[in-house]
Design brief:
Length: 209
């Protein structure tokens, strides 16, 4: 950094800080600290914005974006039904008479026989559960297949990214990129500490005034 640009940086810092602090003090003096602080903040934002726009032509080439592995979700599967259910019977398992009552069908015994022999509940596998488990197996197989495809696509993207990254590194090492960095450094030197000293100066003033 040359002496003249450093001197210019210090000058900017002093000017901007003085303007901001002056506005703050003035605002407080006329009984509106908020107005002064707002104006001071506007000055600070203008300094930062101006510095950013001065630096904008000196951008580094953007880094290539690394690929992200897609995690394939399980397809929609209905909620799991009960695995086992009570078997219902049309006729009494003791005497063979037909059963019409829903509770008797579940107990598999008629209202008279149940008083003597008690219920004859029988649990059986639920056919709805069997269908559901088949559906689940199919959904998992589909998920695994789509994940394998996503994995393969990701591997290809990783290889491409590695090449892009290498090219990007070469670009960064090029004389054009070095010129860019020099341009940025020159802008930074021109503004010096102004963008940071200014808000610090306001804060100090706000504490003292
Ligand atoms: Zn019976």
């Amino acid at each position: 950094m040359s002496t003249s640009s450093r001197r210019r940086g210090i000058a900017w810092t002093v000017v901007f800080s003085a303007v901001g602090v002056g506005l703050h003090v003035l605002g407080t003096a006329v009984g509106s600290g908020l107005l002064g602080s707002t104006l001071a903040a506007v000055v600070w934002a203008a300094v930062l914005g101006h510095r950013q726009s001065a630096m904008s032509p000196f951008k580094d080439p953007p880094a290539p974006v690394a690929p992200v592995l897609e995690l394939v979700a399980l397809g929609p599967v209905p909620p799991e039904p009960d695995r086992r259910v009570l078997e219902e019977s049309d006729s009494c398992v003791i005497c063979g008479r037909p059963l019409t009552n829903a509770d008797s069908s579940k107990a598999r015994v008629g209202t008279q026989c149940i008083q003597v022999h008690g219920p004859r509940f029988k649990m059986v596998e639920n056919l709805a559960w069997v269908r559901w488990s088949t559906e689940l197996v199919a959904a998992r197989a589909e998920q695994a297949q789509r994940q394998a495809e996503a994995d393969a696509a990701h591997s290809r993207a990783v290889a491409t990214h590695a090449q892009q990254y290498e090219r990007w590194q070469e670009e960064l090492a090029s004389p054009e990129a070095a010129e860019c960095r020099a341009g940025r450094d020159a802008v930074k030197a021109r503004y010096g500490l102004a963008p940071w000293a200014t808000p610090l100066a306001y804060a100090m003033t706000a504490l003292l005034v």
